[in-house]
Amino acid sequence: MLDIKSRDKTYEAQMHRADELEREICKLKQTEKTLRRQNNYLTALHETSLGLIDHLDKEKLLVAVLQRAAMLTGTEHGFIYLREPGDSEMQMQVGMGFFKNQLGRRVKPGEGMGGKVWEVEHPLLVADYRSWDGRLSDKALDDLHSVVGIPLKGRDRMHGVIGLASVTPDRQFADEDIAVLGRFAELALVALDKGKLYADVRRELTERKRTEATLRESEQRYRLLLESSPDPIVLYDIQGKVTYVNPAFEQTFGFSGKDLLGKHIDFVPSENWPETKAAIERMLSGQKIQLFETRRMTKDGRVLDVQLSSTLYYNRDDQPAGNVVILRDISVQKKTERELRKYHDHLEDLVQERTAELAKINAKLEQEIDERIRAEEALRKQGNRFKAQSHHLEEVNTALKVLLKQREDDKKELAENVLSNVKELISPYLERLKKSQLNTNQKTLINILDSNLSNMISPFISKLSSKYLNLTPGEVRVANLVKEGKTNKEIAELLCISKNTVLFHRYNIRQKLGLRNKKINLRSHLLSYDS
Fold first, then answer.
1. pLDDT tens-place string over residues 426-439
2. In the prediction, which pLDDT does 64 show?
3. What would the pLDDT profile of 411-420 be if each residue is shown by its tens digit?
4. What is the mean pLDDT of residues 106-121?
5. Domain count, the chain
6. pLDDT of 30 higher than 70
7. What does the alpha-carbon distance between residue 476 and residue 419 come to, in Å, rounded to a whole number?
8. Cβ neighbours of residue 11 under 8 Å, at least 6 residues apart?
9. Cα–Cα distance between 36 and 519 in angstroms, integer?
10. Partner of 225 at 20 to 30 A CA spacing, among 15, 134, 210, 374?
11. Alpha carbon distances (Å) from 181 to 68, 147, 166, 188, 192
12. pLDDT attached to residue 114
């Protein structure tokens, strides 16, 4: 009996030990399964993370994230909805397995699994989608069973929803699957941020390339403009050293651009240094130098009269980097001004001489007229006593009339000659000078010359214009030129007006002279006033 009891106890102890071993083996297997799954999970996370580093395309990154998550949870069906900023709908842009045929589907907040997760902004697990109250009514979704969705929520907004699904009743998702999917949702957000960053970088690079191309094109245009400019142009840095000269500068001053680069140009005459230094100071203070007249020397020692304009240019930091100087050789223009001034002085001398001669003639004629008056008075008083001399006095009177007529004719001829010479020999050149490129001082001198000429010939013009009734000054000028036989084109060029304006003045002249609708030549009619 003792042996039997002892064996029974030993057997019970062995069975209890066997049960403990079996439980330990089960625990080891469960632990091994958990470790294997965690290892697969960590491996998948690691490989997915490496994929995020190696790849740049957003869609490929999202597909990789979804595939890894589906593999770890034991399904082949997954989807990702994405939403653009400001959109009122999400669109399924990534789908695998069952959801390949659902790509492009759009949902609003609260519609279906994606819309519901968007609305509540936290993970959602549905055991059986077919009987779920929030499902979409599309019959194509009847094969879905267990579905899990995770929001792709960034710091500032909802980017979308990632989800997994099962099409068999025996595969149900658990909280552990939600945790796994949550980790991959974070990787999906990283993929979205990386994709956005990559797109921004590509856009920035594209814009930078476009900007660089525009800058190159602009630089080519400006260089072409500088190269083709007929005026000498020189660029200085802020220390006053040459950084560029155009071909016109080399041709005008004789300096080679290669010899000047990085150096100061010694071409300012000593007597022009004070005004040049003052101009530089004004420019450095921010003022623009416009049409500043000074002098510069060429390489061979010739001194040129120049007109200079200069302004600062700035670097990217909005700091002065140097200045641009544009010069224009006005030596010929200055020479013309001196010759014109000399001719003007000579003309004034001639006018003074003619005026003195006319004064002498007038004095002589006045004396003759006084003598005639005295003679006539004496003849009247002594008429009865000197009847015999009456015939002789009449002859003397006739001679005096002829002399007076000759005097009037001489004065008229002299006036017309002066007017004609001024209009033909002086006025056209004055008008051409007015049309040329002159500075303010030059235009003022030309206007003074024109005004003085007008004042000198005004007595002759007033005498002639008195014959033309109530004509305006412009009409008087046109009438005088018509009387001289000038064509409409010649009158327009002489008076610096259009041909239509000449025709308008001719029409008014004919109307004021009573010649409208009459076949009378205007020049012949005007000439008749001189008879």
1. 777 777 777 777 78
2. 78
3. 777 776 777 6
4. 89
5. 2
6. no
7. 13
8. none
9. 123
10. 210
11. 9, 12, 14, 10, 16
12. 86
Q: Which residues contact 463 (CB under 8 A, 6 or more apart)?
A: 415
Buried b (16+ CB within 10 A) or exposed e, 299-328: eeeeebbbbbebebeeeeeeeebbbebbbb
User: What's the CA gap between 269 and 409, in Å, rounded?
Assistant: 59
Map residue 530 onto helix, strand or coil.
coil
User: Pseudo-torsion of CA 473, 475, 481, 486, nearest 10°?
Assistant: 150
Q: Determine the pLDDT at residue 379.
A: 75
| Cα dist from 158 to 85, 111, 193, 296, 378, whole Å | 9, 16, 13, 72, 130
Query: Is 157's pLDDT higher than 70?
Result: yes
| Inter-CA distances, 529 with 156, 464, 465, 511, Å | 98, 9, 11, 17
One domain, residues 165 and 92: yes
- Among the candidates 284, 314, 329, a domain finishes at 329
| Domain containing residue 151 | 55-200
171: burial class by Cβ within 10 Å (0-12, 13-18, 19+)?
middle
Looking at residue 419, its amino acid is L
Q: Residue 251, class by beta-carbon neighbours within 10 Å (0-12 exposed, 13-18 middle, 19+ buried)?
A: exposed
In the block, tokens 């069906």 appear at 77
252 and 181 share one domain: no
Tokens at 422, concatenated: 């001024």
> What's the rounded mean pLDDT across residues 24-44?
52
Q: Looking at residue 106, what is its pLDDT?
A: 92
Judging by beta carbons within 10 Å of its beta carbon (0-12, 13-18, 19+), is residue 232 exposed, middle or buried? buried
Matching residue, tokens 């214009």:
465
Tokens of 185: 């949702």
Residue-wise pLDDT for 262-300, tens only, equals 888 888 898 999 988 888 888 888 888 888 888 999 988
pLDDT digit string (tens) for 334-374?
Answer: 888 888 888 888 888 888 888 888 888 888 888 888 888 88
Listed residue (91, 94, 83, 89) closest to 184, CA to CA: 94
Query: How far apart (Å, rounded) are the C-alpha atoms in residues 244 and 320?
Result: 17
Question: Do residues 169 and 61 share a domain?
Answer: yes
Distance CA 248, CA 255 (A): 10
Is residue 245 located within the same domain as residue 116? no
**Whether pLDDT at 23 is above 70:** no
Looking at the structure, do residues 150 and 82 belong to the same domain, yes or no?
A: yes
φ, ψ of residue 216 in degrees (nearest 5): -65, -45
